[in-house]
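During the no-cost extension, the postdoctoral fellow (Dr. R.K.) reprocessed legacy sequence entries with the updated structure-token encoder. One reprocessed record is reproduced below for audit purposes.
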Amino acid sequence: MGTPFKFKGSLVPLTILELQEFEPHTLATELQKSTAKNAAFLAQAPVVVSLEHASDVDGIDLEGLLNACREHGIRPIGVKAPDALASAISDAQLAHVHLGKHRPAGEHDSGAKKTEEAPESQQGSTMVVDKPVRSGQQIYARDADLIVTASVSPGAEIIADGNIHVYGRLAGRAIAGASGNQDARIFCRALLAELISIAGCYKLSDDFPKRFWGNSIQVSLEDDALRIQKL
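Re-encoded structure tokens follow.
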């Protein structure tokens, strides 16, 4: 009889709640606004709470912070914080995500799972997908740019450690710079996406300026914020 289980690496994008400061009333108000506006994306979403850029980390009421998240339908699964908070994180029965620099493109865990893919060819540092990416599919271009010559359907997800180019309609989710490459960009013929992300910074469809909807655009990352421009 073989082992009843096995561990497998997996590329599962997670939402990061990056805290700048902790003032309970303000946080509760802003969480309520964000979860109401982005209910489809944030409802019961697994979230890693990052205190990496928070002021006065030692004075943060971690239990109060986590309870505020849960009260607004967000499910913390880990906390990215200094080692000084390791005991409090352990008491909360959450994972302690240690602080560290972004890994450049090309540095990955060796056990990464190969996700479901549409037929494609891959040469050098570019993966080419020449058929539509259907709802429920996930395409991952590891250590490479991703070119999709067809459309990406709602509910599909395309991920690349480098740039993403979509020559059809881009619905679904597009995640470029997945390993932390802040110079990555997203290009598409028609912006209809549910989410776009570069190096962990993301925008949901409700946050896109209307003038870009359905148009040819490029997305870049500047000062930790996504910049959308028409092509």
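DSSP finds four helices and 16 strands in the chain. The chain has two domains: 15-98, 120-230. The remaining legacy entries will be reprocessed before the final report is submitted.
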